[in-house]
Amino acid sequence: MFxxxxxxxxxxxxxxxxxxxxxxxxxxxxGPALADDGAxxxxxxxxxxxxxxxxxxxxxxxKEKDGKAWPVGGGLFTMQVEGGGTLQTYCIDLRTPxxxxxxxxxxxxxxxxxxxxxxxxxxxxxxxxxxxxxxAEALGAKLDVDLSKNEAAAGTQAAIWTFSDDVTATxxxxxxxxxxxxxxxxAVKLEEPKASLSLSPATISGKAGEKLxxxxxxxxxxxxxxxxxxxxxxxxxxxxxxKPVTEAKNGDKLFFDVPAGTADGTAELTAEATTKVSLGRxxxxxxxxxxxxxxxxxxxxxxxxKASASxxxxxxxxxxxxxxxxxxxxxxxIASNKGDEAxxxxxxxxxxxxxxxxxxxxxVPLAEDEAYKFTITGPNDFEETFEGVLDCKTATPxxxxxxxxSTTPSATPSTPSTTGGTTGTTTGGGDLAETGSSNxxxxxxxxxxxxxxxxxxxxxxxxxxxxxxQ
Length: 470
What we know:
The chain crosses the membrane at residues 443-462. Helices cover 16% and strands 33% of the residues.
């Protein structure tokens, strides 16, 4: 949720230096990836971070493995869903800055920093058993303490950081600390939650007279199905038995039924649902580097997913699906050709050829935090554009204070804000939100560590005042 330390500068430098995709990648004939129900899909919630400020939270002390300690504000962010609805999220990337009003996309754990985190399931347990799933009053009664909303949010965030960023996170409030200790003691691993709505694969192809598909639906709701305006007459969305369908639920297989004799063309399917997004779904920025978030609460939200089909009597029939592959540190591009001629496309200056009837998987390496945007084209006006940011790792501790130019931090405490639109009050020149990092942070960390050693119970000079609700 909150971001600290020197990775902000490193992220900015990486973004500036990254000019796009690495020119070469490893290509191999696709194995089970395309056939699996877990193949990359399209869809899910998109939401905008209301601001870089926490809306409910309190002070937390972070202790690194090397013993250094520093203060930070921990709590909930609010996000606005495209199409309607709101989300509440916690941070799972402690040292990375937030970007005001950044747009985020819902993804599975495999496309986020949770992809190799053995404690991801315990984070989900915390979300299911802490605030805001349970009220501050209910949690306080369970622990026999007088817990405010801000303390409940800070105590929950501290427990999450312990598992997401491998640190010791301790709220400064004794009551919030009791909540953190309880959550860490009781947490057990739960299974990854389902996507709110996803269609996989995102594009398919074939010949008229066939059922083109299948497209697998993954959802926690019932989705309404529609085809785009201009869909050729006779083209329908059907199930495996060929029956026309207008709704779909989790696990359903959908097909484009294209009658024989239909002129070469394309069609697009839209699935839409109103649902609460499952707790524990990860949210990554598609609008430049910004810390990774995890869902803690959801109103009813509008979710959409799209898939397209193309068909032709002869020639190449391309289809392509792209997803982040955090395990391989890049993108997985699955390109297939169900036509009777080879298909050649250009990807960032390099040409790739997919033979008739062939499917290949192209792994495109990317640097961590690298923004990407590219378009793949083919015959019959085939065109698919993909963009996003590779964000697969939590930020690591920044440089030691002695390795960073000295700056003078503000002596004025700050308070977690409930409104957006302003940048932080830290000195040092960073154009970051209050919950972001600045180049003064290493100095703050050093001073905070000294205060902990000298005073034990001393109040940190950057400690935020508790907001109303305590």
